[in-house]
Amino acid sequence: MKQTPELDRVQEKMRPGVLTLKGFLGNDDRKLADIIAADQQALLRLRINADQIAERLQDLADRGADLMEQEVQVDNRYLIRVRDDRGKIPSPWEDGLFEKGDVDLVDQQTGKALKWNRLTLRLIAKHRFFGGYGSEYRIDPDVAYEILALKPFVDRSPEAI
Amino acid sequence: MDIQNVHPFVIFFAAITTNNILLTNFLGMCSFLAVSKDLKSSLGLGAAVIFVSTFTAPINWLVYHKLLVPYELEYLQYIAFIIVIAAFVQIIEMVIERVSTLLYLTLGIFLPLITVNCAILGCALFLVIRQYTFMQSIAYGLGAGTGWALAIAALAGIRSRMEKKSKVIPELDGAGIALVITGIIAMAFIGFSGIVRIN
Amino acid sequence: MTPIITAVLVLSALSGILTLLLLVAEFFFANYGECTIDVNKGDKTYKVEGGASLLTSLASQKLFLPSGCGGRGSCGTCKCRVLDGGGPLLPTETPYLNDEEQKSDVRLACQVKVRSDIKIEVPEELLSIKEFETVIESITDFTHDIKGLRFKLPEGETIKFKAGQFANLFSKPYEDVKEETSRAYSISSSPSDNKAIELVVRYVPNGMVTTYVFKHLKQGDKARLIGPFGEFFLRDTSREIVCIAGGSGLAPIRSIVLDMIDRGISNRKATFFFGAVSQRDLYYVEEFKAIEKEHPWFRFVPALSKDDSDHPYEKGIITDVVARNYGDMKDLEAYLCGSPGMIDACCKVLSSKGMPADRIYYDKFS
Lengths: 161, 199, 366
Prior knowledge:
- Chain A is of the alpha+beta class and 161 residues long.
- Chain A has helices spanning 5-13, 32-46, 50-64, 118-127, 141-147, and strands at 72-74, 78-82, 88-90, 97-99, 103-107, 113-116.
- In chain A, the strands form two sheets. In chain A, strands 1-2-5-6 form a four-stranded antiparallel β-sheet. A two-stranded antiparallel sheet of chain A has the order 3-4.
- Chain B has one domain.
- The termini of chain B are close together.
């Protein structure tokens, strides 16, 4: 995948202080195209896909939601706290506004943690962007595979048969 | 016959018919294809092109013969012509915006794009190559612009009628069919050949 | 050497002459002179330099029409009536205007150019939207993640707002944030207290403006505010009121209650349910208790969802507490302010108790 001028613009918006305080890239200084490509490789190796991760995280967020924003235990394994903040945040791809509110998940079996919100989930599902290294919102495919109990994805589309 | 002796009037008609800058030289095609969907905006753009070419042709003639030739700077003709054209397009943009906002918005990006309309630059270069006199260059500028406007108006008229009546196969719809029509109009214009001759 | 110099000189001379020509043309064609914008039949008149769009001309005079796209003609929110001097309706506007609007001279302010004297009509509320360079009078810690800020307006200026509306607070550039950024916060003070306004801010992790408020803003600092905005305010009826809020959502409800006291509205019963997790999340309790004691029409009901210690408040989730306090709610009206999830949950409970949806008012800041 090539770093297009469009991706340059998107990457510019992902820097700290433009759309969010800490940005989307952490301490990652790779090109956005390389970040996306590297994670795509990891998904192929793990035989899972981005939609699976996004759907699973959305499902966990739905079940972990609490009106008073208290921690909820889900599946006897995860401790989830869903914040619900007022206001909306735009996507760096300029394709929508997303309600704020971070989801914090701790896997009690491994002690590993994930953090996401409506916007970062959308970036995974639509743009295959999982966050830069060092970003607290990074959903590392390997970590996701390890703690989300994902099954290898079987492609049933006509092209794959 | 020596070109200098041809009456400017003849040059004017030749530029519209036998030497139509669009239909015989195929210059200025991009805006020709893009703005020819309806008659009104194509007439507006045509008027803008007439205005720009009529004024830039004599000015470019003066710039070339009175400024570049005496200083032996003929090699600068492209850049000098473009500067003159760019300045004139700026002025006409101001005028159109003042007079008719509607036309200004319809023309949109194509108004500033006249700057890089090859018909205008081609017009300036032809009058150098063909060694027109000052009066002839005015007539040629007016004629070339009018010819271009006539061609775009013809195409727009045909296209707006076709939109209502004809069924074009999707692969050819848009620019494709416009090019085919342009070819046919160009062939029709061959019928003018022999009436006047200027080169 | 000489040919190069002559070449440069000749080209420069040519460009110079053309520039001069352009300047002359600009003077004649692009100069519209001073134009007068008449707002709401003489309510306000502005004198502006002609040539810019109506939207930006008005903004330069601090009259802010709502605009989502910043004047590119792609959102259609900057509608206003142009009674005279707006020129013909443009093709860039028609997609955003229905037949009725087109007939009554509604236009998009970002597409209309001010070329001559112009008469327009805008909603009354917009005239009270102003920009203020304020000074922070005080910052109060309400809970571990909620602060109250009081902004003093410049000498001689006042703000006119309806209780329940919000204002936009701007952060100055700090750390990685290179540009001024603004976010909406509800006003918690009473409209009669019009030489200052108070906002309640809840800390949002990684929030650009809340981080600024919590980590950088100090008493005595300058801060820029624009407001008031919003359709969330007390409606003029005689129905009994139920207010439900959580967290920083207390702000507009406090403003509404203080406003009712100031305006002497005592014929409407009002109950304020404030949902929190434990006692450490409560604030302004003393003030509401005092109001309750003095004004028999008002009742303050804090509800704690997860506090088993001995306290005088209701126990349980806010929606359950509301549900068990009322039977039929079809003759009441409700004012909600809180997180989107809380508002959705409350709407469900209120509807199930028979309250019509058009009498449930809330502000999601969307």
